[in-house]
Amino acid sequence: MGLLSSLMRAWTTPKPPPIRSVDWVSVLADLVPHVAMGVRKSANEVAGLTVSEESLPGVVNELYFLYLHILDRKAFADLDSQEREAFITSVVSAVAHRVATERCPNDYQAVFHDFIDLCGERSGTYGNCRLAAARAEALAGTLFWEASRFVSRAATPDDDDATRDPILILPIYAVMSGHVLAFAKSFLGPGSLA
């Protein structure tokens, strides 16, 4: 099922399906590359950053980490601790398997374990982030801003300014936050990120 049909089905469904009944690996495999291309286009056209083909897998990974964290926040709200741990471990492992298989089958174990380790690091960072900034409050420290910094760093690994300069991060932030909010509303239900 394609991304558009998944989103349309989700938008027309009054209540999202139970979190464990969705094939999250397929949903994310459709969604993340699409968002990565939007980030790339925005970074190139608006911020003037060059996102190379070589850096795109890092951008994709960072987007996976963000979406997996959001899924974990939803699981935290919907499942008891044992169910949540089993659920998120299963989804993260399945996504890591897919990434390692598609990207580097000759070095599967290293890619798989690196993905799992980085996902854990991001989850620790994102867990300390507030979801949004209050009116007239700085974006620094919010989930989307910090994720945008990680994506910016992955997109331009040789450009230190890309991770520090808010003018360079803002276009990535705008693209990502729009896609992620649409994802949350469609698949997880209104108010799921609160």
Task: Please give a handful of descriptors for the protein shown.
194 residues; mainly alpha; 7 helices; globular
Domain module tally: 1
Beta-sheet strand percentage? under 5%
How far from one another are the termini? 29 Å
Largest sheet: none
What is the number of strand segments? 0
Low-confidence stretches: none
**Overall helicity:** 55-70%
pLDDT averaged over residues: 81
Rg from alpha-carbon coordinates:
16 Å
Class inferred from helices and paired strands: mainly alpha
Secondary-structure element string: HHHHHHH
Name the overall outline.
globular
Describe the protein:
- With 194 residues, this protein is mainly alpha-helical.
- It has one domain (27-188).
- The protein has helices spanning 3-12, 24-45, 56-78, 81-103, 108-127, 143-155, 166-188.
- Helix 3 packs across helix 5, helix 3 packs across helix 7 (166-188) and helix 4 (81-103) crosses helix 5 (108-127).
- The radius of gyration is 16 Å and the shape is globular.
- The mean pLDDT is 81.
Give a quick precis of the structure:
Helix content is 69%, strand content 0%. It contains seven helices and no strands. The two termini are 29 Å apart.
Topology diagram in text:
Layout: H1 3-12, H2 24-45, H3 56-78, H4 81-103, H5 108-127, H6 143-155, H7 166-188
Helix pairs in contact: 1-7, 2-3, 2-4, 2-7, 3-4, 3-5, 3-6, 3-7, 4-5, 6-7
